Amino acid sequence: MFYYFPDNYMWSSAFNLALMAGGSLGEMNRWLSPLREGEPDGEAWGKAWAGMAEQQEAQAAEDLATGLRRSAGLRYLRASVYHASGERQIPPGPEKSASYRASLDAFEKAIELAPLNVERIEVDSPDGVLPGYLIPARTAEPAPVVIFYGGFDVTKEILYGFVEEEFVRRGISCLVMDSPGVGEPLRLRGVPSRPDYEVPTGAVIDYLETRADVDASRIGVMGISLGGYYAPRSAAFEPRIKACAAWGGIWDWGATWEKRWATRSKTVSVPWFQLPWVMGTDTMEAGLERVRQWTLVDVLPKLTQPLLIVHGENDRQVAVEDAHKAFEAAGSADKTLRIFTVAEGGAEHCQTDEPDPARQLIADWFGRRFGTLPERG
């Protein structure tokens, strides 16, 4: 992995994730280089990312004043990534809330000005309204759709940056979602995650079935990082899902967290506050107890749809052995395990070190399962 911050996995991982979502290396280096020396300073981290985002917003306003709408929109898009990247490391409180709302505001301006091929949608669910962005396929006929879930700390705005129009180019719509324990539900309404993710997924599918531009017979689900639990769990109990991809294999996430906490692992993506916050508990101990429910050990044998698991050989957040266990346990007749190696690149967690081959692989896989790409040639 590219360690922009020497010996600091968490911050370097965040740096790579921002690049993966569309950040600019030069802009990021200009604001973050002073943080590379000395002890990590959380306050300096937040100020650097906020300054980076605010500079782009100021330059976007200048572009807009001269009629350069698309240039302004793309600056706002990067500003949204920068606000979100800083926010991920900030504990719950006023600073985090302000940073998150700034990310939302910048993304909305990017939609309007760039403009982005995006429609904000809202789904009624047992957990309240779940917001998302539909990236619609440019087809005259109803198109297949893939629901895309984040994981432990990635919002729908970042998910958009991960895929943009790769599914659209293959004749597939993509719905990037904020769901329980993620994004707006967690940050604005305090809705924690839940182990039975087929419940919110069922509500999302109910919504999709109302749309004339969606082919409800070809609905897929994918998830990145902890989304590698959410997506397979949903598919195992929701027969309306026809294909499933885990961008990061999860086996027993509770066991993973027990090991992390026992060793005080330095290869985590965000500070320790994240677990009790996402779990909806007051203490780390209660969070560790609750997260034991996040296991696919008894779930994957029930999954029978086509399944793709993508993992990195050198994943230091979730062991590669977990991806192998998940693959072996899955009940799918059509299942594929793709391990990216150190030699070829993409060996880190969710291929943040070299993401494009994985992104293309996943979109192609869905294209073939849904008949929008030929099987060969």
Automatic annotation (TrEMBL):
The enzyme's E.C. designation: 3.4.-.-
Enzyme class: hydrolase
GO molecular function, one term: hydrolase activity
Record has Signal as a keyword: no
Keywords (A to Z) from UniProt: Hydrolase
PANTHER family for the chain: CONIDIAL PIGMENT BIOSYNTHESIS PROTEIN AYG1 (AFU_ORTHOLOGUE AFUA_2G17550), DIENELACTONE HYDROLASE DOMAIN-CONTAINING PROTEIN-RELATED
Sequence similarity: Belongs to the AB hydrolase superfamily.
Record's protein name: Alpha/beta hydrolase family protein
Species for this entry: Streptosporangium amethystogenes subsp. fukuiense
Species lineage: Bacteria, Bacillati, Actinomycetota, Actinomycetes, Streptosporangiales
